[in-house]
Design brief:
This protein is mainly alpha-helical. Helices cover about 70% and strands about 0% of the residues.
Length: about 400
């Protein structure tokens, strides 16, 4: 039996904005207080914080849960052209600025631990530098590449006209392939093309949105349970990487408990969606998480190494983290936000021209609550409003 609940009725969910900030800070904590020193990237570490910071990398899994929810929400009511433009505008301007800043800092610092050169910069413009045999400008970019693959599949499903009509079937097939690969096959190609190691997190986010927008059903609850159980298996992928590269990782029982906590925090944020009011401050906190994530690692290491001998490592941590938050705010407020609508207009004009002979109408699920104006200004405003939906 399907028990329908109300759909998200706002263009943003404030609780998820706060959750994004929590996830980003967890990753920052992991890099500054655990990974940096043990990997030799930081000259002095924070051993008192390390036993807690070691779990901070799970903030990436939390990002993937949020992404599954938000992208599923964002895709409804859009065709593949609108979805693709929205994703590009959300990701690329901020990436370009942050990657350029990182390149400039690394080029000036000339730290052999963080090598770069102009060719590496040029290849990183693609956002897929490792695919061309070059290092990513920063170590965190691997997760952005997986996000883009995920977005690409969503765009393909919209183009084929099967999303969201076949949502649950698609999720079930994806989880089945992921389980086969992670439990038996172990194909690296499938891990890249179908993101099988992290599919349970994206899938759980998609299913959580389905619960919120369509209500409970035995099929959804069964898939959610399967997705969580599979995530308890796929977490060993990152555990194995940590042991191979850092020599230490949480035990499997500890990771299962931490994984349950991550899912619980995500569920809590969704359940509290009507409790946390949207505000300009929360919008800002959610907005700065993307540049913070892109900027913090290598630049942070360089700054911590430079400041710690002069002001102490703890003061350096506060200064660097504060500086990262300020720069991230500047990127969001004065670069990402101003270019967003003009870039959407331009890209949609180009996209509409290129696809004029092949237009698929989006599936509509949101019901207008009042009369709709047909004036040209109102039509343009509605077109842009469709890009003002939830963002990751």
């Amino acid at each position: 039996m399907n028990t329908r609940t109300s759909e998200p009725n706002s263009s943003r969910m404030a609780s998820l904005d706060l959750l994004r900030l929590l996830a980003a800070l967890a990753v920052v904590f992991f890099h500054y207080c655990f990974r940096g020193a043990i990997a030799g990237d930081l000259d002095s570490g924070y051993p008192a914080a390390a036993p807690f910071a070691i779990y901070g990398y799970l903030g990436v899994n939390l990002f993937f849960l949020i992404s599954g929810f938000v992208i599923s929400w964002s895709a409804e009511g859009r065709n593949w052209q609108e979805f693709s433009v929205a994703r590009f505008v959300r990701l690329y301007p901020g990436f370009l600025v942050c990657m350029t800043v990182t390149f400039i800092v690394l080029a000036i610092a000339r730290d052999p631990r963080f090598p770069t050169d102009p060719l590496t910069y040029i290849v990183n413009l693609s956002m897929f530098a490792p695919a061309f045999g070059r290092l990513a400008m920063d170590g965190v970019y691997w997760s952005i590449m997986l996000e883009i693959v995920f977005y690409g599949w969503f765009a393909a499903l919209l183009l084929a006209g099967v999303y969201p009509r076949r949502k649950l079937t698609i999720v079930a097939i994806w989880l089945a392939i992921s389980a086969l690969n992670e439990l038996f096959i172990g194909s690296g190609a499938l891990r890249i093309v179908l993101v099988t190691a992290y599919a349970p997190f994206f899938a759980s986010g998609i299913l959580a949105y389905h619960l919120v927008s369509r209500g409970r059903s035995p099929e959804v609850l069964t898939l959610l349970a399967a997705s969580f159980l599979l995530s308890c298996k796929t977490i060993v992928f990152s555990q194995s990487w940590m042991i191979a590269h850092l020599g230490v990782a949480p035990s499997y029982p500890q990771l299962v408990a931490a994984n349950a906590a991550v899912h619980g925090i995500f569920a809590g944020a969704i359940l509290l969606r009507s409790v946390v009011p949207a505000s300009a401050t929360i919008l800002m906190l959610g907005g700065l998480t993307y540049p913070l994530y892109l900027l913090h690692q290598f630049i942070g290491y360089i700054l911590l190494n430079g400041l710690a001998p002069h002001i102490g490592k703890h003061a350096a941590f506060i200064v660097v983290l504060s500086g990262m938050l300020i720069v991230s705010f500047v990127v969001w407020r004065y670069i990402e936000m101003p270019v967003r609508k003009p870039l959407i207009r331009r890209l949609m004009s180009i996209m509409n021209h290129l696809t004029a002979g092949y237009r698929l109408q989006p599936h509509r699920y949101f019901i207008p609550t009042g009369p709709i104006s047909t004036s040209p200004a109102a039509q343009e405003a509605r077109s842009l409003d469709r890009f003002a939906g939830p963002e990751t």
